Amino acid sequence: MGRFYLTTPIYYVNDKPHLGTAYCTIMADVITRYHRLFGDETLFLTGTDEHGQKVQEAAAKRGLDPQVHCDELSERFKAAWQELHINYDIFFRTTDQFHKEAVQKSLRDLYDRDEIYAAEYEGWYSVSEEIFYTEKDLVNGKSPTGNEVTKVTEKNYFFKMSKYQQALIDHIHQNPGFIQPESRKNEILGFLRQPLADLCISRPKSRLKWGVELPFDKDYVTYVWFDALLNYATAVGYQQPGREKEFTKWWQESGPVHLLGKDILTTHAVYWTTMLLALGIKLPRGIFATGWILNRDMEKMSKSKGEVVNPLDMKNYVGVDGLRYFLVRDVHLGNDAPFSPDLLIGRINNDLANNLGNLSSRTLNLVEKYFDGKIPAPAVDDALANELRKTAEGVGSQVKAAIEKMAPSHALEAIVEMLNQANRYLEERAPWKLAKTDLNATSTVLYTSIEVLRIAAILLQPVMPEKMEELLRRLGGPKADWTSVSKWGLITVGQKVEKGEPLFPRLELPK
Ligand code: MSP
Predict the structure, then answer these.
(1) Which residues make Cβ contacts (< 8 Å) with residue 198, sequence separation at least 6?
(2) What is the pTM of this model?
């Protein structure tokens, strides 16, 4: 048993959530729920990034005061996460007073120690990315990711990021799992082969009002990323008198794992880590970059590129748990993956309606039909049942190993394998025929199958909390904790079960 602190990026409130942003949050929720199941003490942080030019512009477009706009949009995120069964511990907002004060303390601290200095600056600014580029960064007059840039010359404040370049490289080499996946780590190491520039951490108020004021120059606010990245630490008490114990517990002793999209890896792996080195607090336990959910043109799905599938719309058709299952099963954490209604529906039909759904309805149906709805005691020795039992007893540790490696899709593969084996077993023994001649042998088949269903339901709870709660209820409400996962024979003989309506009805592609 340990402690597990997981974060998602905090989302810009320039738009409501879409499947791309929901993806990271769902994955974080699933991984945290697994750790909770393993018995870890967990902390799951998500929230909204509310300062900066993008948000200021989004509010202006709606003719709203930025704070009013943020209050409204952050509520939309909360509502969306609730509908998607996201069980976060902290919903963070960067406009909260305690955070703004902690950011100012951090800025003051760095300024007093000459880690921040003022200089004349010329650069190319991308509003949509909120990032400055130098002339040589530009590709055909645009940012490296293809966004419009404008030339800006002004006095600004800089954080001495370059000073920490070597320390960061050393840390990455000394801690092999620090940046994952491996390919992303190599990308960052490649980036760090070039000399690192200092980081512009201010914006003049003449251009941007909506931000945290610099404590040493009231004509400036701080760069939105400087403010936003600090959320991971201020959320657990950093720079807040009275919250030292909490900070020690979650930051210094445990340390966060940051889950984020590959497009914002540099800000996390380079800006954030060097900020922490300068502030003199520990670096995170890990930084894991996910891939993108792609649209049908195989591009990153996003609101600005139009054609965004709203997860809330899809959930109305396939159910929230089905959508969650698809994302965990078919998008290997770290890789890009396409999304389309037919892929989603195909997966749900295959794994949930057929594999899991059939196993449970066939089994529970026969228990009702031949055993008065009560779980029968196994009555004969059955070699195939023993093999299945062996698989089932081992699947929990496979799931745990996969989650600890941040490979939740592999966890599902192990569970699916067990369910496949159970369905093959049922086909082999054909209890629907067997029951007519040998009730003892049938008892063993059904008992074995119910045990597999019990174990599968516990292990699938983090992915499909609502559906698996229902399945466990139909199985008579066995204990659903971690110690029950790898123990065989915990289902109560004689316990009433309930067949119910299909848990996962077969879906047709909507017209
Ligand atoms: N506010 C910053 C993060 C600050 S963290 C201190 C930000 N916000 S965002 O709303 O633009 O994006 C948040 C996350 O959503 C990023 O991790 C990004 O990768 C993710 N995604 C947005 N579209 C996505 C897909 N189509 N697929 C997967 N993730 C995507 O950046």
Answers:
(1) 158, 159, 160, 161, 162
(2) 0.95
